[in-house]
Structure formats: C-alpha cells, structure tokens
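Q: Hi! First time asking for a complex rather than a single chain. Here are the components, and I think there are two in total. Is that enough to go on?
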Amino acid sequence: MFKDMLMDIFTSYDLVAAFLTVAVIMFVANKLTKTINQERMGSSVAIVIGLILAYVGGKVTGGSKGISDIPLFTGMGILGGGMFRDYAIISTAYGADMDNLKKAGLPGVISLFIGVIASFVIGVIVAFAFGFRNPVDLTTIGGGTVTFVVGPVTATALGASAEAQALSIAAGVIKSVVTMILTPLIAKKIKLDNPTSAMVYGGLMGTTSGVAGGLAATDPELVPYGAMTATFYTGLGTLLVPSIGYFIVSSIM
Amino acid sequence: MEIYGLGLVAFSMFLGSFIGRIVGQLVGIGGDIGGVGFAMLFMILYTNFLDKKGKPIAEKTGKGILLLSSLYIPIVVAMSSIQNMATAFEQGAVAIVAGVLATLGGLLLVPVMSKLGGSKEE
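A: Yes, that's all I need. Here is the structure of the assembled complex.
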C-alpha cells in the first residue's frame, strides 16, 4: 500500500520528483568528492552518476531515454530535456562580457569549421577501417561523429542503411559522453581556462550536451562562451555533411 | 520583480529561436539553426546596452536570471541521466572508436586554435 502511495506521489509530481532526484544525486556526488578532497570534481561526478543511471535505465526498460523510461523518474525527461537545457543555457549569458566575445569571435568561427570537418573525417576513416565501403553509410557515420543529430539527418537525406544510422547516433552519444567526462580532467593541459579558449572549445567539440556538461564541471563561468559557439555546430554540420561531405566521400570512393 | 528575469530569458529564447528558424529556412534544411546562440547574443547585447545607458538590470530581475543559471548544472545532471547509454555502448566498436577519437582530436586542437586568438591581439 505504501509503495503504491509513493509511486503515485512520484508520478503525479513528476517534475518535482526530478528536482528531488537530482538534488540527491548532487548531494551524494559532493559528499563523495569531499571525502577524497576533490571538491571541484563534484559536478563531474554527478554527471557520471547520471550517465550510469542512464545506462541502468536503458538496460532495465530497453527504452532509449535512459532513466526517464522508468515511471518513477519520468520527470528527469522534462528537467533534462531540450527545453530546460536551452532556457538555462541562455540565462548563463547574463554577465558574459561583450569584449571577451569580440576577442574570440574569429577563432570561434574558424574552430566551428575545423571542428565539424575534423570530426567528420575521423568518423569516415574509422568507418572505413571497420569495413564500410558504401559512400552513403560512410557519410552517415561521419555525420554521427559530428553530432548525434547530424547522423540521422544525413541518413534520411541520403537514404542510409538502418545499421549505419544506429551507429551514427551511437558515435555521437559516445562523443558527447566522453566530452563530458574528459573535459574537466584535461582542462588544465589544454589551457581551457579563459573565455577565448572556451569559445574555441565549444566550436571544436560542438556537442551541446557534451560542452555544457564538460564546462559546467570545469568552470561554470566559461559555460556561456562555450555554449555560444557550440549551438551553431549542429546547424553547420547538417548543412555541410549531407552536401559537400557526401560529395567528397563519394568522389573518393 | 524576479519574474521579469525569467520573462526576459524566455523572451530572448523565443526571439533567438525565431531567428534560428528563419536561418534554417533560408539555407534550406529547416529546423532551428543557432537559435540558442542568437538568444544568448541578444541577452548579452541587451544587458550591455542597459549598462552603458547607466540603467543596469534591477537587482531583483537579475536574481530571476541567476536562479535559472544556478539550475544549469542540475539540469545537465538530469540531461546526462536520460542519454541513450545502453544502445551507445552496445552498437559496437565503430561507434566507440569514432566517438572517442573525434573527442580526443577536438580537445587536442583547443590549445592550437586558442593561440590563433592570442596572436591576433598582439
């Protein structure tokens, strides 16, 4: 009986349940990092806990939306969905400095192009190395390596196989996950500590979720700069990959 | 009032998304291209404009905006918990190798490209 009551509370107040859940995750993450004297890592540990829960959720339900496929946690889909993510990202622009933005404008734009091209080329080469020879499938997997939105868009535009499409989404998700985990760990080494390098980083990595998570765990003050360039990345990818990207791959193959 | 802050961000979001959709139509692929970026740009331009005019955003309005940005990390945590992790890891080596290499490549290019910005100022 109590179990039903609890279930009922969680499902009727799904968004509030998500606030509670995230609060618990962050509490655990912060306690954990405090005991090992790495308090700065609190956010990244919380993100990794989130990813583990996503894996568990996908395993238990067989669904595609991580933990939010479990009825108790449907609210996580609202809180962590695109609407709240974008709303909160935009709010971080408050307090960003106009001069910093101008300084990093040109390198930011160049980074966008180099980021899309580099990811695409790496994706195509890896797919080739694993035995793919069809230019449509190669372009699709390359597109997925750009971001997990570009992959399916390319697949639909060019009529790729379902296998290539699934792989392209997976490559994009892996990229954003690895970006979230790796960024705070190597931020110092790649001098990711000022607005200019944050804008360059956003342009090179491009995955909005990866950049968002990575910078949040590194230095929240850099979030607006990285997010600013990253948001143009998927658009540039959907523009370049199915057109010029496919043209180049098919003329080489 | 704090709600003005929430409203300002919402207004920026809709304005940005509108511009993003127009861009999407113009380049012929539809969707919203850079909408969030345009929204952020508008926020920055507007707040800087008010500062220059000597009438910065009221403290309470600012608190509304800061409430949202303080929710940013919790939202990212929620976002990470709804990724399609199970499929991503089971799709096989191609996806993992491509994803990891692309990430490493991008990260290693950060210092190179940042220098480009640095040398320009000097």
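A: Chain B is about 80% helix and 0% strand. Let me know if you'd like any chain examined more closely.
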